[in-house]
From TrEMBL:
Signal peptide: none annotated. It comes from Paenibacillus stellifer. The lineage of its organism: Bacteria, Bacillati, Bacillota, Bacilli, Bacillales. This is Oxidoreductase. InterPro entries: Gfo/Idh/MocA-like_OxRdtase_N, Gfo/Idh/MocA_domain, GFO_IDH_MocA-like_dom, NAD(P)-bd_dom_sf. Residues 135-254 form the GFO/IDH/MocA-like oxidoreductase domain. GO terms for molecular function: nucleotide binding; oxidoreductase activity. Keywords: Oxidoreductase. Belongs to the Gfo/Idh/MocA family.
Length: 333
């Protein structure tokens, strides 16, 4: 039996999301492998390479992009570096899996998309939760009519990391703040589940002078066509909480841990006309599924889960949310 071809990833940076989640997940993948890792110093990338059995380590991102054995790159760098290195990777002929949010604004996202199209490489924004099979089951429930017609979604994602004042998430010029870090999860979930683009937003935020004046907590209303709405809250200075509720005319779907579920916590709860039931869903590592689906798109075995333009739409929404919060006004898209 022939050995399955594997997409060879290079990792641009040794951020915790890479070492703690993405690199181990790719190691479990059927269709991808980590070929190389780079940092701004060989000491750090060398340690990571030894720890995970990665073939090549580089002391600069430029060197990794020159490696002919690297097919694709994963970019876990701070948000303000995404545009630069995604474009440079595309120009080097590498497919690009970039951490969310893909850029600092919609214009940068557009530049990245165009650079990847010009180079003929695949581009995806790394919202791993969208790859979890539980959302296929949730869509089935929605299509069945069990909770009636959709009316609204409520989403919460908060944690408290305010004491770590050196955190890069507290630097506004680097794309810091709770909207960019975790608000993008309920925002993308609403776009995904409504299968529509928003019309307007109203967001109220707590901006902290002790944390680079980024939004440490944001609450908002996102208006969708047909009277549909998302009510959301996100924060880096609040009690740890994750929840997504999909509200219909006859019931609702309650999704615990909507953005970090793995294997044991994949189920969700349906409240319908016949009462409450616990719905099962297949467990999976969403980071591994993300790598496999990215490779399938690159190899032409399956269409991408989302076209690259989805990332532009996401940045338009994030930009509108931030404009609303800073201007204390409703912003139309």
């Amino acid at each position: 039996m022939a050995t399955r071809r594997k997409l060879r990833f290079g990792i641009l940076g040794c951020a915790q999301i890479a070492t703690g989640s993405v690199i181990p997940a790719i190691a479990e993948s059927e269709s991808a492998v980590v070929q190389a890792v780079a940092s701004r110093g060989l000491d750090k990338s060398g340690r990571v390479a030894r720890e995970f059995g990665i073939k090549s380590a580089y002391g600069s991102y430029e060197e990794l992009l020159q490696d002919p054995e690297v097919d694709a790159v994963y970019i876990p760098l701070p948000n303000h570096l995404h545009r630069q290195w995604a474009i440079r990777a595309a120009e080097a002929g590498k497919h690009v899996l970039c951490e969310k949010p893909i850029a600092l604004n919609a214009a940068e996202a557009e530049e990245i998309v165009q650079a990847c199209r010009k180079a003929g490489v695949h581009l995806a924004e790394a919202f791993m939760y969208r790859h979890h099979p539980r959302y296929e089951e949730i869509r089935n429930v929605l299509q069945s009519g069990e909770i009636g017609e959709l009316r609204a979604i409520r989403g919460s994602f908060t944690y408290n990391d305010a004491s770590d004042t050196s955190n890069i998430r507290f630097r506004s010029e680097w794309g810091g703040g709770s909207l960019y870090d975790i608000g993008c999860y309920p925002l993308t979930a609403a776009r995904m589940l409504f299968d529509a683009e928003p019309e307007a937003v109203t967001v109220h935020s707590l901006f902290s002078p002790d944390h680079g004046n980024v939004d440490m907590m944001s609450s908002g209303l996102v208006e969708f066509p047909g009277g549909l709405s998302l009510l959301f809250e996100c924060g880096m200075w609040a009690y740890n909480r994750q929840l997504l509720e999909i509200i219909g005319t006859k019931g609702l779907i309650e999704i615990p841990m909507p953005f970090n579920a793995r294997t044991e916590d994949a189920g969700f709860i349906v409240h319908g006309e016949n009462g409450r039931r616990e719905a099962a869903a297949p467990g999976a590592n969403p980071y591994t599924r993300q790598a496999d689906q990215f490779a399938a798109a690159v190899f032409g075995e399956a269409p991408p889960l989302y076209e690259p333009e989805d990332a532009i739409q996401n940045m338009k929404l994030l930009g509108a949310c931030l404009a609303s919060a800073t201007g204390r006004r409703r912003v139309e898209l």
